[in-house]
Amino acid sequence: MNGLHELQRDFSAFVWAGKTGLGERIVPNGFEPEQRLAIYRNNTLIGLTQALRDVYPVIEKLVGERFFHRLGRDYIRRYPPNTGCLQTFGDRFADFLAASGDVCGQPYLPDTARLEWLRHEAYFESDRAGIDAASLADVPPERYGGLRFELHPSVRLLASRYPVRRIWEFHRENPAEDGRLDLDAEGGCRLVIFRLGWEVETAPLDSDGYRFLTGLQAGLTLSEAASGVLPNNPDFDLAALLRFCLSRSLFSEYF
User: Fold this and answer.
1) Which of 8, 126, 215, 247 is least enclosed, having the fewest CB within 10 Å?
2) Can you spell out the DSSP letters for 14-76?
3) pLDDT computed for residue 238 by the predictor
């Protein structure tokens, strides 16, 4: 086996899993080899844990700094980064929380983490000019039903049985309090997350609006997406939803 490759493999095993046996291959330089390795490993874990904190500040407030630190270390051991770009690190944290069970008696943690990750993704997503109502002025009305709309790259959709938008907003502004939120009274939510300029916004949707946008995201035509809603709700205000989407540049193209 290539000596460098073997050393790199063993060094990675030490950083992520604490496996020893490298000391004899590390040259002392003011510190014993074990000390030098421990410093590097500790700095790496501190940096990655801070990267998780940056993406999931509300989760940290919900579980507390110490417990988040423990969660972060467990996550890093299970899902070490596979790229040098920290922008993508932490993408499985919500699933990790879900697999951990009812963490701290807060079953809404995974979906709250999903919201924080989707906001993170939306911020770093590629940019593209959105279309507005004026862009559709030359389209004959008889063609409207057959149009397909491509959602802006930053758009994300999230449905949860918990009021994660309210949880996120509340704990972002009230880091030490959680007793005012009645989860049963609040109920679930459906959200559209998008970047407008350089600000990420999270807007609520009703069930029909969520179903309609999910249909467009799947490639349905305007008529097909609407037909998935209107039979059950003839009062569905499609025009109002389209005005909202166009005013927020949620569509980047139509064809």
Assistant:
1) 126
2) HHHH-----GGGS--SSS-HHHHHHHHHHHHHHHHHHHHHHH-HHHHHHH-HHHHHHHHHHHH
3) 95
Query: Measured between alpha carbons, how far is 51 from 45 in angstroms, rounded to an integer?
Result: 10
Q: What does the alpha-carbon distance between residue 248 and residue 242 come to, in Å, rounded to a whole number?
A: 10
Q: What is the mean pLDDT of residues 40-54?
A: 93
**What pLDDT sits at residue 23?**
59
CA torsion through residues 180, 182, 183, 185, sign: negative
> What pLDDT digit, counting tens, does each position of 28-38 carry?
776 777 787 88
**Rounded CA separation 6/13 (Å):** 11
Are residues 124 and 243 in contact, defined by beta-carbon separation less than 8 angstroms? Answer: no
The residue to which tokens 């911020």 are assigned:
123
Nearest to 255 by CA among 101, 153, 129, 135: 135
Phi and psi at residue 42, in whole multiples of 5°?
A: -65, -45
Using the structure block, give the residue that is written with the tokens 């064809």.
Answer: 255
